[in-house]
Amino acid sequence: MTVNRALFDSVMVPNYSPSQVIPVKGMGSRVWDQNDKEYIDFAGGIAVNCLGHCHPNLVAALKEQGEKLWHLSNVMTNEPALRLAEKLVNATFAEKVYFANSGAEANEAALKLARRWALDTHGEKKSQIIAFNKGFHGRTFFTVTVGGQAAYSDGFGPKPGNIDHAEYNDLASLEALISDNTCAVMLEPLQGEGGIVSPTKEFMQGVRDLCDKHNALMIFDEVQTGVGRTGELYAYMGLGVTPDIITTAKALGGGFPIGAMLTTTELAAHLKIGTHGSTYGGNALACAVGEAAFDTVNTPEVLNGVKQREVIIKDGLKAINAKYNVFADIRGQGLLIGAELTEAYQGRAKDFLNAAVDQGLMILVAGVSVIRFTPSLVIPLEDIEQGLARFESAVAAIVNA
């Protein structure tokens, strides 16, 4: 069998348009393709590979658990799931954990819990969910409707109802929508897909205050920001507010699919036996790898190292920009960094991504005009230096074309 990019077009549903490059091996922050070409990874599988590729702690956990127990039904629990849940509870405001397989599923659980809580405690009228334009919360029909990007949710028929959208960082727009019939406000503590947009502390405190005033739940989607990505274990910890529910995935498994919803005992009580579930959620193999990833990231050394690397990468991007003047703004927190293109290069983020691949660098986009960088949280400083040099070559190729 010849395994190449043409095979994708032959056998895969065409909802993706992947690169011609097919990686076959990774180690740390380096990846090699079928032709043995080396790439430095500034993409991290879209903020998933928090410890790079084949980190020894994750490999050891996978091998050890892989020879013990992979999967049980939820008729029984398992030790890795219980250990990871306890660690999540001990490290956050939360008291209860629900495991899923992905960020979308964790968000689905959060939204269903919010609706169930409101129905149980306040009746049918309290069902409105408010989210934010340019937000992203997953691709299930419920989560993609809550996400504030119509391009992802249109074209599938009638949408789940009573969902409204405010403007991020605009408290007045939320205030105009929220009422005592609002059951939840869902938002990212730093918008990812929407362009790497950080909230102001005043905005976050204002959202919390409005939720309290109208007895609505505040849900933080920390799928992309959680598990060290911003330099805090969870981004809410640096914002001075505590949500009622957070969701976590991506980095939680370091590359192995896992998600979780975290909340309080009081709220969790509304997901009674049989009200929600997941065949694979809490899978022993996933939770064992998740536990290893969480333990490795949740140290002062790694979290402080994220903030150190943020400065190095932002300074490097500013130096590149001083030469080529392609960025209007360089922003983000920790190792979730966005570089917004100037007017002259608007809409061309994908061109920069492709040019970077040509130079042996993997990066991302966040919309059509923002380049996104989400490398490993422990990427060696040498790899950052070489990656920035490759990125400068890519920028030069675009500018001088």
TrEMBL record:
Any one GO MF annotation of this record: identical protein binding
Domain of life: Bacteria
Pfam families, A to Z: Aminotran_3
Residue numbers binding N(2)-acetyl-L-ornithine: 139, 278
Pathway(s) per entry: Amino-acid biosynthesis; L-arginine biosynthesis; N(2)-acetyl-L-ornithine from L-glutamate: step 4/4
CDD domains, per database record: OAT_like
Cofactor(s) listed in the protein's UniProt record: pyridoxal 5'-phosphate
Cellular component aspect of the GO annotation: cytoplasm
Transferase as UniProt keyword: yes
UniProt EC number: 2.6.1.11
One GO BP annotation of this record: L-arginine biosynthetic process
Transmembrane domains' residue ranges: none
Quaternary structure annotation from Swiss-Prot or TrEMBL: Homodimer.
UniProt-listed NCBIfam families: arg_catab_astC, argD, PRK01278.1, PRK05093.1, PRK12381.1
Family: Belongs to the class-III pyridoxal-phosphate-dependent aminotransferase family. ArgD subfamily.
Protein's UniProt name: Acetylornithine aminotransferase
Protein's organism: Psychrosphaera saromensis
Chain's gene name: argD
